[in-house]
Amino acid sequence: MAKRTARDARERGQIALEYVGVVTILLFLALAAIQLGLAAYAVQQASTAARAAARAATYNDVSLSPQAAGEAATSDWLTVKIDGPFVSGDEVTTTARVKIPPILPIFDNLGEARRSATMPLD
Question: Boundaries of each TadE-like domain copy (predicted)?
C-alpha cells in the first residue's frame, strides 16, 4: 500500500473544484444553446404570423381579421403583435413582432423578432 504524502492531502479537494468549474461552464453553454434555439423559433413564428396576416388581409372575407389570423398562426405561449395591413397599389404588407422568451429571468429583455410579408391583392 502506498503512503500518502503531504502533497496528496493538499490536492484532494482540487478535483472537486475543477469538476464544479467545468460543470458550470457546460451548463451555461447548454442554456445559451437553448436560448439561441428559442430566438430562432421566435423568428420562424414571426414569419408565419406575418404571412398568415397578409393572406387574411388579401381576402374580402371579414370573418377573420389579419390580426386574429396572425395570432392564430403562432404558438399560444408567444406574444405576437401584428402591424398593418398596409395597402399599396395591388399589394398588401403586414409586419409581425414576436417577443423572444427568455430562459432565465436575468435575460428579461431580449428584444423581439420582426418579419414582414407582402401578398398580392385579389
Answer: 13-55
- The range of the structural domain enclosing residue 91 comes to 12-120
**How do residues 41-98 score in pLDDT, each as one tens digit?**
999 999 999 999 999 998 876 788 899 999 999 999 999 999 989 998 899 999 999 9
**Is 93:84 a contact under the CB 8 Å cutoff?**
yes
Phi, psi of 63 (to 5 degrees): -70, -25
Instruction: Decide if 66 contacts 85 (C-beta within 8 A).
Output: yes
Structural domain includes residue 101: yes
- pLDDT tens, 89-117? 899 999 999 999 998 877 778 899 999 99
Instruction: State the total domains in the chain.
Output: 1
